[in-house]
Amino acid sequence: xxxxxxxxWMPILLSEELPExxxxxxxxxxxxxxxxxxxxxxxxxxxxxxxxxxxxxxxYYGRNxxxxxxxxxxxxxxxxxxxxxxxxxxxCNSPYKDRMKITAYxxxxxxxxxxxxxxxxxxxxxxxxxxxxxxxxxxxxxSKKWQDCNWVQCLEGAIDxxxxxxxxxxxxxxxxxxxxxxxHAAIGSQSVKNDRIRWVxxxxxxxxxxxxFPAGLTIGGARQADxxxxxxxxxxxxxxxxxxVPSAFPGENYHxxxxxxxxxxxxxxxxxxxxPDRPLTEEEREACxxxxxxxxxxxxxxxxxxxxxxxxxxxxxxxxxxxxTGIKGVSEQDAAVQNSQGPxxxxxxxNLGATDIGLVKFRQYMLKRAKxxxxxxxxxxxxxxxxxxxxxSGGWVASAEKKLSVVMQERFGHxxxxxxxxxxxxxxxGNK
Length: 432
Description:
Elements: H1 2-5, E1 9-14, E2 26-30, E3 33-39, E4 45-48, E5 63-65, E6 68-70, E7 77-78, E8 84-86, E9 104-105, E10 107-110, E11 113-117, H2 131-134, E12 140-147, H3 151-159, H4 175-184, H5 193-202, E13 207-213, E14 216-224, E15 229-238, E16 242-244, E17 254-263, E18 266-274, H6 282-289, H7 316-321, H8 330-340, H9 357-376, E19 394-399, H10 404-412
């Protein structure tokens, strides 16, 4: 699975963590590797192995100067490609420095996130085209947080739309308070929010339809609405570690997450909110900073304010009278149950039911590709489909006889929710 993940670009930092040329380098742990990211004096980005090959000193303590990282032990300097560009301890005409190199990985910056490719150079794909990367900076907000459990159980929580009937539900009798709490969970806009909350609450067993497309899986869960119609909440899983939230109706903000494994038992979660039609307001940005929807309140090191160290500030009175969990924040509610499953949940002890079909399909999908790579050397096709990632997720109400692809066509104007044409990209149909 680690080799499969290395066939795709991984987020390693927010752009704000390396804000300017020559700024201090940052430690990065990704896919089990301890690395060092830096923006050199010319603004170029690098991700390198942090150990100087001279005597093993760590370049984290080095100087970021004049186009490279200089080791403070004996002055050897390395550029963003890992080349030794200066070796003051060797004669000026010595070819010795030309043989010295540290491991360096390709790096790109997009969507206010810094991405790296850690796989074989001959299989390096284009960076995917998720819509939040394509809109102007004014139209998006990005954040990140740390989580102490395996990345897959986090992702599985995101594509399991059935849990909204419980984990994020409110039980407040005060209608205004209930609406405020559910708005925090991004159930929807004021116009139809009452109905959406009611439908989610009254039908805890959505019926699922799952379709495969060139970049992943579309997971549609349909609940009973009014007048024999169905309320669809449609999530998108994008290979290998992205998921889009199933809440947005037309005109509303979209949300998504990417899980970047630091190790088998920890991950960084990158969160993004965007609106393809308009800039986000300062009020919306402030709500994200305070932990609305997929975002969490974090400290200066991006660690959650409410976490396992303080039991997520669980309030039993709130749990009794207002919210199902007594925990503030959708992101924190998710983290509480995901972390409670243990560092890596033991699937052999699960007892799955009808509403878990999305997880089953996801697991089959991932294992099939991991085995094909490991046993047959078959590269994942999705890595070559970078232009197929600009899809949308969201909600819709449709008559009960309609299949998911028809609902998608109604909601998004495309049977898999593709949004790329308005950004000047080739249509999905033309690139099958």
